[in-house]
Design a protein that fits this description.
Blueprint lengths: L2 H19 L5 H9 L7 E7 L2 E7 L16 E8 L7 E9 L6 E6 L7 E8 L2 E2 L3 E4 L11 E6 L10 H8 L5 E4 L34 H13 L1 H9 L2 E3 L10 E2 L2 E2 L9 H15 L15 E5 L3 E5 L16 H4 L9 H12 L5 E6 L19 H11 L18 H13 L5 E5 L5 E7 L11 E7 L8 H7 L4 H18 L3 E5 L4 E7 L3 E9 L9 E10 L5 E3 L16 E3 L6 E3 L49 H11 L1 H7 L22
Parallel strand pairs: 9-10, 10-11, 15-16, 16-17, 17-19
Antiparallel strand pairs: 1-2, 2-5, 3-4, 3-6, 6-7, 6-8, 9-21, 12-13, 14-15, 18-19, 18-20, 21-22, 22-23, 23-24, 25-26
Helix pairs in contact: 3-5, 4-6, 9-11, 9-12, 9-13, 11-12
Length: 676
Amino acid sequence: MDRRRFLQLSAATGAAGAGVALAPGLVGAVTAALDDPPFRHGVAAGDPVPNGFVIWTRVTPSPAATPGSGVGGPVVVAWEVATDAAFADVVRSGSLTTDAGRDHTVHVDVGGLEPATAHHYRFAALGRHSPVGRALTAPAAGSDPTSVRFGVASCSNYTGGFFSAYAHLADRDDLDFVLHLGDYLYEYGNSRDRYGSPSLVGVRDHDPDHEIVSLADYRRRHAQYKADPDLRRLHARHAFVTTWDDHEVVNDTWAAGAGNHQADEGDFATRRARAHQAYFEWVPVRRPDPSSPERIHRRLAFGRLADLHLLDLRQYRDVQPASPTDAATIDDPGRTILGDDQERWLLEGLATAGPRWRVIGNPVMITPVTFGAAPGGGALPPEAVAAVAELTGVNPVAGAPYNVDQWDGYRADQKGLLGFIDQEGIDDVVFLTGDIHSSWACDLPLRPGDYPVLSPSVAVELVGTSITSDNLDEIAMEAGATPEAATAAAIAVEQGLRASNRHVQMVELRSHGYSVCDITAERLQMDWHYLADRAMPRSPASFAQAWQVLAGTNRVVPAAGQLGARPGGGAPPTTTVPGTGPATTVPATTVSSTAPPTTTAPVANPAVTAEPAGAGSGGGSTGSGPLARTGDDASVRGRVAAGLAGAATGLAAVAAMAAERRRLPADEELPEREGR
């Protein structure tokens, strides 16, 4: 389809679309529809492969045809993809019809494109053109790309703050795509279940006002997020690769229920199906198996440099353990977080020869973590205990897992996967993770208690912090702690976690922002960038820290500096440095990203954590497992206070945490995988 034909079809779809979308004879309504931008939710692309990607938009055929309304008839939508922003060189084009049955969303799986090439795309309907989007195809199969670089994001709660981190990612011209690891949106309303910065009440409110349950609710919530100007601009700038966690449906989701699903909210399977339908309508994701319409785990390849395995850790898992002390449930070999089919798919993919790096898009942490004490072995501040209980859903108990909603609550799968990696001799496996609203760099030994001498690391995990969802210090402030006490509580938890988990090389629980991951044949590096204030529109951000994995080492070590310009073009923007006055900028550091660290030995794990530049008030969600965000009569602060009271008996045990460590015998065998 040439450009003239596209413009002709644009005009035709304008007439046809207006005719079918509105009641006959309403000339004034037709005029209003054309005056109201039909592409108000922008454009997006996703799942790049060597010969194409998915492109997406939503058409609003009339003022009444709002998302979730079910109003509006069929609309013909034209699309085209070009190698230039002016669309002088159109390489693919076509048209299709959308309607209220798919909430007037449009998905096109574009093929026939050149690999490793930037393309531009747009739509036309109702006599209007959409904004122009841009996406890169993946490197060709069998090729050896110099690098793959992408943004990493998770946990973007609309009521928690402005999406400034998305804006900073959109400013970069050195990314191949953005990897979003879950909690793309949140289900909560604006009343007793609301959380986030108190200053944003009335400024960043959820739509609809209540917790989302119906299909119309989920569609409206997706539409609200897509209309956010920072997210809309990022979608137009870079393709997304996504998987989901729990809040895309409801908090603490598992195969047959969820912690935040109540009996009066109807059948859980029906609710989840509605949420998944809206997700697949509104997110530019390629369904990997038409015969399994709710499957999202899939694999993308980037030449011979890296494979990206995207996991679904919600709809196949058994129910979470009720307590971190429930060892019988946690260690039960019949329980799963992956599900049998997904586990077989993952193990087969990891064992396949070819890629240098095997990267796993992992919605919840796999690193074994037990709860630690304050420095010197003293009891943690009450604010810290309450905040941990709110963030993880359970009270901290000496020697027990930090969070049993993570892989730590499913030790058979956790040990089975890490044991497989070790037994098969698979090097350069890196888990990239979201969910926990914090930053982590961890080695992954089979037996953490024997690390590093008797149980070396077999893989690595890097965890990016939240876009806006509550950090530990903010949760403590919700419970009534002063900012100073909240910061001290978070630092105490950081120190305790590192003191009792020698394989955790870095943990920071106080900042919001985004990460950038860069992969070369020699190393994989991730940079963390932190916002000054999540409640500030277009908040400044600053580079905070960088960690890398040298090929063949299976260990994470500090990088020499933040990522610089990519070979062949594409540079990071200047780094914004927050201050008390107007923000200033300085050139980004351009230290060689492949420079070796000062030591290749396992990094020392000091007890004191320095507060990085840019660590600020951030924001957030309750991630995995708020205490009881179910709309009961208690406020958020009241619920956390109740959690604090319930934790009183655990404080004495926490005091001895530094001396405690759950050690696995050196000769312990992997659990049998039976009884599922």
